[in-house]
Amino acid sequence: MPRGKNSKHRARERRHQAQVEPQNLVGAQAIVGVGEDSLIAWSYCNPQGLQRATSTSTESIQRGNIDEKVVIMVYYLLYKYNMKEFISKAEMLREVIQMYRNHYLEILQRAAEHMEMIFGLDLKEVDPYRHIYILVNKMEVSCDARLLNRIEIPKTGLLMAVLGVIFMNGNCVSEERVWQTLNVMGLFSGRKHFIFGEPKKLITKDLVQQKYLVYRQVANSDPPCYEFLWGSRAHAETTKMKVLEFTAKIHNMVPTAFPSLYEEALRDEEERAQARRNFCSVVIQVSGFFLHSC
User: Fold this and answer.
1) What is the CATH number that goes with domain 143-274?
2) Partner of 25 at 20 to 30 A CA spacing, among 19, 90, 102, 241?
């Protein structure tokens, strides 16, 4: 290709990229209000993190560019979730992946892991032929919750982590133990976090008011000590098995690696199933009574 035509071709590609990214990614960044450097700090959920290239070698530069594509993909998925839009492979290739098509699966998988671990959102394929996806919140939101200002999207992952600490410590855990876990995640009392805001206010007030957590003083404690339990909405919108699966994944393990907790989660699943069967039985009996009366 002649030099003039080649230059024009590259210019058209740059203009196309400049047109695509602002439409979809600026809005996504506004959702969480942070930049790319802050997102790279998400390494607490993945020991390898999203590392930037520090070498000038071609391989390191390419790896750094792929890492940045993962960050952009996270922004893009958040944007799509909040717009309540389906996510297609074709769109992701066109608007995010672009020249890194050979790394599509790696970029999508890493972005999906961050969406799950941090935001509590699972990427589900709903059309395997056209490769259409949706993001599903790990919390099974109740009807009442849809009418209220329920927990914000970016905080679902943190809530699942706290619920996991509670479950793994006998369904009631000291505030000190919770903070030990949150400190490992880079969250400290009184220090504002770029995603979760002020953590102490979030876990002792916001999530308590929304009935996801119970925060109470330990009986007869002097000086006062506090503990956490699951709230009523946590019991309604998730299960011990789902929380155990989430916690195990954080530790790169499987739920059965925690035998006693796994057995408890199985019993909880059976109790829930039995409660549903009993409810259906009552509904059928009541319906039959009214039909017979008519």
Assistant:
1) 1.10.10.1210
2) 102
Structural tokens at position 62 = 């390419």
- Edge-to-edge strand list for the sheet holding 132-137: 87-88, 132-137, 121-127
By the 10 Å C-beta count (0-12 exposed, 13-18 middle, 19+ buried), 214 is classed as middle
The single-letter DSSP state of residue 58 is H
CATH of 3-137, one of 3.40.50.720, 1.10.10.1200, 1.20.1050.10, 2.40.320.10: 1.10.10.1200
pLDDT, tens only, 154-203: 688 899 999 999 999 999 999 999 999 999 888 899 898 878 889 999 99
Task: Answer whether 244's CB lies under 8 Å from 164's CB.
Answer: yes
* Structural domain boundaries in the chain: 3-137, 143-274
> Quick one: which of 235, 231, 214 has its CA closest to 139?
235
Other Cβ atoms less than 10 A from the Cβ of 145: the count is 18
DSSP-derived letter for residue 1 is -
Element (H, E) at 271: helix 259-293
| Radius of gyration in angstroms for the set of CA atoms belonging to the chain, rounded to a whole number | 23
CB 213 within 8 A of CB 151: no
Helices 259-293/240-250 angle, 10° precision: 150
Query: Where do we find the tokens 């057995």?
Result: 263
pLDDT value of residue 185: 83
If one compares 134 and 18, the residue with the highest pLDDT of the two is 134
Q: Is the pLDDT of residue 254 over 90?
A: yes
| Terminal Cα-to-Cα distance of the chain (whole angstroms) | 84
Closest CA to 100 of 66, 56, 59, 61: 66
